[in-house]
Amino acid sequence: TCVAHGGENGDIPFTLYIEHSSKSYTGTVSAEQGDADLTTVTFKDNHLKITIDTGDSNYLLTGTLADGKLSGEWSRDGEKKGAWEGKK
Questions:
Q1: pLDDT confidence of 88, banded at 50, 70, 90?
Q2: End-to-end CA gap in the chain
C-alpha cells in the first residue's frame, strides 16, 4: 500500500504487487487511474527501482527499504515529480 506525493492531482494512493521468483521480479501497480504491469523491477541491497510504461507515459520509482517501509522518489517521462512511500 503506497502513496505518491507531489503530482498535479495531489496525493495519489496506489498498490504495488511485486513477486520474486528465482532471480527476477515481476508485478503490477494498481491505482484509481487504472492498472499496469511493471516493466522492470530490480531490488538489491535494500534499493528498489521500478519502471512502468503505460503507453501514455513512462514512470520511474526509486526507493529504499528501511524498517519495513519503502520510500523514495518518482518521476514521469524523465521529469522529477515527487516522493512516494509504502508499507506492506
A1: confident
A2: 6
d(CA 16, CA 30): 7
Looking at the DSSP bridge assignments, the partners of residue 26 are 19
The one-letter code for the residue type at 74 is W
Report which secondary-structure segment, H or E, holds 23.
none
Residue written as cell 523491477?
41
- What is the spatial distance between Cα 80 and Cα 60, in angstroms, rounded to a whole number? 9
Cell numbers given for 55: 503507453
Pair 77, 57: CB distance under 8 Å = yes
Cell numbers for 78, please give them. 524523465
